[in-house]
Amino acid sequence: MLVNRFLLALCLVVATTVHAIAATSPMPGLPDYEASQAGEGDDVPVGGTSNPLVRVLLSRSFGAVTRVYVSANGPFRISDDQGNTVVSGTSETVAIVSVVPDAITPGTYRVQASVDGVSKIFPTSPLLTATTFSGDTMIQLGATAVTKRQAYRGAAGFSATTSGRVRVVNIAGLEEYLQGVVKAEIGGSAPIEAMKAQAVAARTYTVHNLGRMASEGADLDDTTRSQGYLGVSGETPAILRAVRETRGQVIVYNGSPIDAMYCTECGGVTAQGPPSEPYLRPVTTPGCETKAPWTLKLDAKQAESFAKSVSGVPLGSVKSIAVTKTDDSGRATEVTLTGATDTRAVSGVRIRQVLGADILRSTLFTVKSEADGGFTFTGRGWGHGLGMCQCGAIARASGDKPESYSQILGAYYSDTKVTALTPDMIRRAVPSVGPSARAGGKLKGRGY
Asked: How far is 353 from 427, CA to CA, in rounded Å?
């Protein structure tokens, strides 16, 4: 990727991510650039030539910081949204992007850059962008002066949040972004065909969900709200190969990229998707039924507090917690809570939200009453269970008769096919109101 070829486009792109964007306003589309700019010696890309820019909110490492330390392994610059150079640096330069009160609009904030204690700020610029001049040069970001800075391909955009924090967005080509996703999601030791399946699923999920976090100035973030992302530290020779050999490939249903959900461990069977996503059907996954078994015990006092929190009304001492409805995969879709004063039915997803998705790891559970008035949840799997099971993908790619990545994807996404990404498939969604349009566990990740 030659950053200097789309430097001006990046400045205009990042200008659309300012904190003033209303949560319900649409996010304009971003320009594409040629996927073949990967460097000499690369194979001809597989699939289409579209490599859209992806804006990744770096909330995992920079979600609550008031300053960010910026450097690069070569020449770089920090510019405002008009293209004016604020900082021009070398590999020896460390700039600090920080939040300051806005002198023009009281009660709001903006970002400034400084080097060696000298502040550089353009009063009319609501954001700053750090870019490099070569595909071999990477932006390096750190949350403190002493922590090791993390390297990212592409560019980095900085703006101020309404609470006075720095919002950090990495802007990279789709293929370069995926190089930092695969390891974060399926690990660095999975069989190559499982890595390829992960790359195609993640690419498809990304394309389908472009613009989902536009109210936060991004498409996706680097947490389980969307997909894990490690930047350059997630790149290994095997992962680069998996991304390269599936370049431009996406999963489609009726000609459109699917919402390619995937989960860590399905507990032996994947979940039933909504009617709008008929390609997400229960799939038996041998070997995963014994993975990640878990139990959760609530004593009588905890059960009473839990019942009140999950139902929204006091139920008194809890007499019964029973799974009263399940989907085709056996996951709890309705759980009835019977207390001394009232009875309420809630969804299994609602229970996970209240108890915590890392505590009640899935909705594939049963509930048993204990003699002391408490209750024990026993379940399998970790995550929402929808789509490709990463545990199952690894199993399918292993053994005496390993499956190819296309076979793995075909097993988990019914009636779909893998095809080349084309420009007409790339549309940014109208942003949601609030942190997630897919509440109730629909977003991918261990925590959902």
From this structure: 30
Q: What tokens appear for 448 in the block?
A: 């959902």
Q: State the pTM of this model.
A: 0.83
Q: Are 121 and 112 in contact (CB under 8 A)?
A: yes
Collapsing DSSP states into helix, strand and coil, what is residue 320?
A: strand
Looking at residue 248, its amino acid is G
Which residue from 191, 440, 69 is spatially nearest to 448, judged by alpha carbons?
440
Give the contacts of 15 (CB within 8 A, at least 6 positions apart). Answer: 81, 127
- Residue 289: which pLDDT band, with cuts at 50, 70 and 90? confident
- pLDDT tens digits for range 210-249: 999 998 899 999 998 899 999 999 999 999 999 999 999 9
Q: The tokens of 153 are what?
A: 């391909």
Name, in order, each residue with C-beta under 8 angstroms of 330's C-beta and a sequence gap of 6 or more: 269, 364
Both tokens of residue 194?
């499982």
Sheet of 85-89, strands arranged across: 85-89, 76-80, 127-132, 155-160, 166-173, 53-57, 220-221
Note whether 80 and 55 are within 8 A (CB).
no
Alpha-carbon span 353 to 223, nearest angstrom: 17
Bridging pattern class, strands 388-389 and 262-263? parallel
pLDDT confidence band for 123 (50 / 70 / 90):
low
| Interatomic CA distance for residues 131 and 4, integer angstroms | 8
- Lookup: tokens for 65: 């910081």
- pLDDT, one tens digit per residue, over 74-95 is 999 999 888 889 999 999 999 9
CA distance 246 to 244: 6
Number of Cβ atoms within 10 Å of the Cβ of 92: 6
The region that residue 409 occupies, defined by phi over 0 for left and psi between -120 and 50 for alpha, beta otherwise, is: alpha
